[in-house]
Amino acid sequence: MSDEETMAVYAQAAEDYGKGFARAKDTFHEPDYAAFVAGLPEGGTVLDLGCGPGHWAARFRDDGYRVTAVDASPEMAAYAKETFGVEVRVAEFEDIEIDAMFDGIWAFFSLLHAPRNDFPGHLLRLHRALVPGGQLSLGMKLGEGEGRDTLGRFYSYYSEEELTDLLGTAGYTVLSTRRGNGKGLAGAAETFVVVTAHA
């Protein structure tokens, strides 16, 4: 179930968020994109989970992949459609009930909004949705516990070791991790990790 306060922030900020993040040339995450697509077959199927304004889904599409874009925010889905021509299914993490369909899942700073108690179940759900050997890119913020940012959005924080352990328990093999620092919608600089793994 999506957090109402978090969803309200994204509903109000959809256009500004899209302009700030979707239209900027995002070279910072090029290594993460390259690591992810390196494990995909040509023309493979990709799930963009929590696609937000749709810029990554559009890139996958333009690079020749077959993309399914999902986001819990109707406002973000509308922005993605209007701006990038991306059709977005409005759904929550719990709604992903698919077996062996995707060659890759791009969960790029979306699952960080899930409560810690729900996170292992989401990882298992995504594992089932991947074909054997399918690729996962997981972007999360580093830290401890749960809390809200200055905008009121709910976050769950993990250490890199916690994430790799949870992925291993869910049946993934971690291929690489990359740490970095960046500013999000709230404007604060935070440390993140992007984990690339396969099922």
TrEMBL record:
The keyword Electron transport does not apply. It comes from the Bacteria. It is an enzyme of class 2 (transferase). SUPFAM superfamilies: S-adenosyl-L-methionine-dependent methyltransferases (SSF53335). GO terms for molecular function: methyltransferase activity. Gene3D superfamilies: Vaccinia Virus protein VP39 (3.40.50.150). GO terms for biological process: methylation. Residues 46-134 form the Methyltransferase domain. Its EC number is 2.1.-.-. Keywords: Methyltransferase, S-adenosyl-L-methionine, Transferase. This is Class I SAM-dependent methyltransferase.
